[in-house]
Amino acid sequence: MRTLANQDFSNRRAIVRVDFNVPIDDQFQVTDSTRIKAAKETIHYILNQGGSCVLISHLGRPKGKDPKLSLSHIVSKVEEILQVPVSFFGDCVGRAAEQATASIAPGGVTLMENLRFYKEETAGDLDFAEGLSKLGDCYVNDAFGTAHRAHASTTIMAQFFKEDKFFGRLLEKEVKAIEKVMKSGEKPVLAILGGAKVSSKITIIENMLDKIDHLIIGGGMVYTFAKAQGGSVGQSICEDDYCDYALELLKKAKEKGVEVHLPTDVIIADDFSNDANRKVCKVGQIPDDWEGLDAGPETLKNFQYVVMQTKTILWNGPLGVFEFENFSAGTITLGEHIAKSTAAGAFSLVGGGDSVAAVKQFGLEDKMSYISTGGGAMLESLEGKTLPGIAALLE
Ligand code: AMP
Predict the structure, then answer these.
(1) Is the domain of 130 the same as that of 190?
(2) pLDDT of 245-276, one tens digit each?
């Protein structure tokens, strides 16, 4: 893996593919700057070595040039976070863009206009990628959030740099965190898979079974398993078509020596709403008009025991409808237990979906070993796929 370590960037212009696809409000203010902060380490590393940075990114899904999705809106936020002046250039390819980047002095940072103003970006167009490659002397990919896309800036342009292509610090950290869970994690290894549906997690579960010792299943997926085992699930979210698969999966897990932990009790509600009536119920005994929306107290105790005895923990998906305050306790409690296990020496990776939002919402962000910045990219990694953006850097 070609990382930034031991690379000399002095007097070199690094084209850094960042993921500045941040949410912006009606007033063009950045409402969550996590992704900009995540790119800081790479940019500072290059600048501190006497190099300069040409930042390229996409923002939103524009159809052609759309001033509302211009990256010019975020320049002041990027300056505030990086604590260095950032110039903006209103295009990302062509002679004028090349001339503008050719004259950046060491220590300089230029943010180029939204890559997706050109349809060639998502099409992975070779000529467009070649145009992008002319913006600097070397290529650094730090956009984990788009590493699962074979776009011009994330994958295709890497071929124009034989040796001079590098993993940015964020990309490196993401890849190493995944490897720690999938390959080199200290045993016992636990995967906690929650969220809404079994169908969206099948490939992940299948891929994880060879790598883990324990599997906790939570969230809405639970009811497909409960029904498959002959239980009553009332109005709970349930995928009838996947009941057979659920049983097959339990069998496979047993064959592979993976211990599966399913909830024994859940919090049920008489409506899908925060203000619904609530009570604790055995998983397979849910009355007809009720539905399971969170993990129950006995379940949380059992899960706590598992979390505290494992040394490597992957968490993907909430244990309940955490968006409703009255049904968020299970997800919060599980998060707190993972935090405790982490403090006691376990490695914890939270990634790929709503568990990341939950961890942030409940203030547990700093208590996990690593929180992934990429939704889809993390999911595909957990599914065992090689991300094209990463493969292109390794070639
Ligand atoms: P995912 O994107 O698959 O991780 O699913 C996350 C979503 O699953 C969240 O929006 C949760 O509200 C939802 N979820 C979790 N538990 C349940 C449940 N018991 N019933 C319905 N939805 C759930």
Answers:
(1) no
(2) 999 999 999 999 999 999 999 999 999 999 99
Whole-number Å distance, alpha carbon 300 to ligand 1 midpoint, is 17
Is 83 exposed, middle or buried, given 0-12, 13-18 or 19+ CB atoms closer than 10 A? exposed
The domain that contains 141 carries what CATH number? Answer: 3.40.50.1260
Binding site membership of 293 for ligand 1 (Cβ less than 6 Å)? yes
Residue with the smallest CA separation from ligand 1 atom 17 is 220
**CA–CA gap between residue 303 and residue 262 (Å, rounded):** 9
pLDDT in tens, 39-48: 999 999 999 9
Q: Is residue 135 part of a domain?
A: yes
Of the candidates 197, 360, 367, 385, the residue annotated as catalytic is 197
Q: Which domain does 304 fall in, by range?
A: 185-382
Q: How far apart are the C-alpha atoms of 54 and 325, rounded to whole Å? A: 43
Give the residue whose CA is nearest to atom 12 of ligand 1: 321
Report the predicted TM-score, pTM, of the whole model to 2 decimal places: 0.92
Any ligand 1 atom below 6 A from CB of 220: yes
CA of 216 to the centre of ligand 1 (A): 15
The reply to whether 6 falls in a domain is no
CA 75 to chain centre: 24
Estimate to the nearest angstrom the gap between the alpha carbon of 140 and the chain centroid: 19
Distance between CA atoms of residues 151 and 131, nearest Å? 14
Q: Helices H, strands E: what count in the chain?
A: 14, 17
